[in-house]
Amino acid sequence: MSTNSSPTSAALSTLDALSPLDGRYAPKVDALRTHLSEAGLMRCRVQVEVAWFIGLSDLGLPEFAPLSSSAREALNALVAGFGSAQAAEIKAIERTTNHDVKAVEYWLKAQTADIAEVHRHTEFFHFACTSEDINNTAHGLMLAGARREALMPLLRRVLRRLLDLTDELADQPMLSRTHGQTASPTTLGKEFANVAHRLQKAIAAIEAVQLTAKMNGAVGNYNAHLAAYPEVDWEVFSRKVVESLGLTFNPYTIQIEPHDAMAELFDAVARTNTILIDLSRDIWGYISWGYFKQKTKAGEIGSSTMPHKVNPIDFENAEGNLGIANALLRHLSDKLPISRFQRDLTDSTVLRNMGVALGHSVLAWDSLLRGLDKLLVHPQRLDEDLDNAWEVLAEPVQTVMRRHGLPNPYEQLKELTRGKAITEESMRAFIAGLNLPEADRQRLLAMTPASYTGLAAELARRLAAGR
């Protein structure tokens, strides 16, 4: 017998997972699994079918009287108690039907067979609905739950940590680099403030997306609904059911809800991830320069051959997973709003990867948060770079020269500093020889690269205080 045979499904473990989200990193994305797994999709389908069924009973149809409170409680209990065992039962039915939404309908009929007033009206389960009526609404519920319970709590933790660092490091001067060259100093706190401010807006954009849904039949016109009950205002009823589920009603669709809101959400998450890629790369660089050290844990190994190394692995993992997430998120946002004519099924398999795209985002945010928590500032290294960059004072000196009308200030400073090693002594000698009012001359002479940080500290503290 071959020793390389594949394990049976019953023997599969996290070591056999094709995706690291279900293998190596499975515990880190557990919060998403409740919402974006196939079982989560089934639960939301059941929720939609039950809401539609109960709503129909209240519509005043001659064939379907309002359900009793006990019947409603029993139906809602199917939603509240839905778990892996119930998902397995639906999956077993699907092996016969080869249709996942029809399997949910049959499961509901079986589960309510002993509830007489429901059993009499079981054909009102999925009444006048196309599968997409159930699916698009279920997907909206899945994303709403994932956003509320998994994405936003973790992203806000990242933001809080950035704001803490903004406050703690507001006064710590740091040499800037533009185009990789030394530039006007800033503070570490102000640099964290820049990212925190961007992240605040990004979080607001994610939260502002109104997830939409439709329940209007095969091509969006309530054709079957009106054929059965032409006197009912089906658009009003459909809106009521959708909004009762906490979603925004879309009145104009083909068979599918066009997924524009999903695309907006995925784009907003991708933009957030891009901000955090920027942060991860910068911190990686600051660690390599020695601006930050990293807290270590006993027993951890940074390199198999170089025992001194403490690699910035959390920021590297964050950057890698943010890139994977964005590749998937952008495919989702590009593809999902497109459907041939009134319906094709290219969106169906793509939608099953929402959890993968958002899972890599969550994994990256978790890595980034752990990395931020390990950072230890190395002030001496920061001071060392500032002390070796007196050329950055060419900017304030020539600006004061301009104020007082001294000739060719830019050109004089260019001649003094460009491509040359500028020392504290040479810079101060230049300032001392300028024909400036004494107060301005003394102010410039007292200035150092570490003190030339403008409003950086004030801006940082203001953002941190307003959290």
Automatic annotation (TrEMBL):
InterPro entries: Fumarase/histidase_N (IPR024083), Fumarate_lyase_CS (IPR020557), Fumarate_lyase_fam (IPR000362), Fumarate_lyase_N (IPR022761), L-Aspartase-like (IPR008948), Pur_lyase (IPR004769), PurB_bact (IPR047136), PurB_C (IPR013539). Its EC number is 4.3.2.2. It comes from the Bacteria. SUPFAM superfamilies: L-aspartase-like. Signal peptide: none annotated. Keywords: Lyase, Purine biosynthesis. It catalyses: N(6)-(1,2-dicarboxyethyl)-AMP = fumarate + AMP; (2S)-2-[5-amino-1-(5-phospho-beta-D-ribosyl)imidazole-4-carboxamido]succinate = 5-amino-1-(5-phospho-beta-D-ribosyl)imidazole-4-carboxamide + fumarate. Catalyzes two reactions in de novo purine nucleotide biosynthesis. Catalyzes the breakdown of 5-aminoimidazole- (N-succinylocarboxamide) ribotide (SAICAR or 2-[5-amino-1-(5-phospho-beta-D-ribosyl)imidazole-4-carboxamido]succinate) to 5-aminoimidazole-4-carboxamide ribotide (AICAR or 5-amino-1-(5-phospho-beta-D-ribosyl)imidazole-4-carboxamide) and fumarate, and of adenylosuccinate (ADS or N(6)-(1,2-dicarboxyethyl)-AMP) to adenosine monophosphate (AMP) and fumarate. This is Adenylosuccinate lyase. It comes from Thiomonas bhubaneswarensis.
